[in-house]
Amino acid sequence: VGPTCRGSGVNQDQRKLGYAVYNDLDFEPITESEGDSYARCMVRIREVSLSFELIRQAVNKIPDGPVDIKVKGFPEGEFFSRLEQPRGEVVYYVKGNGTKFLSRFRIRTPTFANIPALVHMLAGCELADVPVIVLSIDPCISCAER
């Protein structure tokens, strides 16, 4: 997911789903087609410039008035969301039961989704290339702990 996929030419970015203000921002996901560590690194580098441009656009769309909203009560129901983080897609699932305690809360982090791709990336590679390949997916080790 995220830069790991986009470094292989996959034009997928959860921000293009139009959540929050992203529907009103003009951008195209950054992709590279080579599918190697260098391509994944270049996607991340080019996304820094894209991030600055998105910030410029978003600042101009901030409405006037108060920005804080008070949450009242303890809602019941379920919520599922897919969002783009720097490492890729994160998935949140929340289930409220009307009390101050949630009955279910799950997160699937981008690192957890990207680690299975390492099996294919590392197949047949030189031992000296392993650190570069692993670091090219920008793993968050604590995010992958289950």
TrEMBL record:
Keywords: Oxidoreductase. Transmembrane segments: none annotated. Residues 1-70, 74-146 form the NADH-quinone oxidoreductase subunit D domain. Gene3D superfamilies: Cytochrome-c3 Hydrogenase, chain B (1.10.645.10). One of its GO terms (molecular function) is oxidoreductase activity, acting on NAD(P)H. It holds the Pfam family Complex1_49kDa. This is NADH-quinone oxidoreductase subunit D domain-containing protein. It comes from marine sediment metagenome.
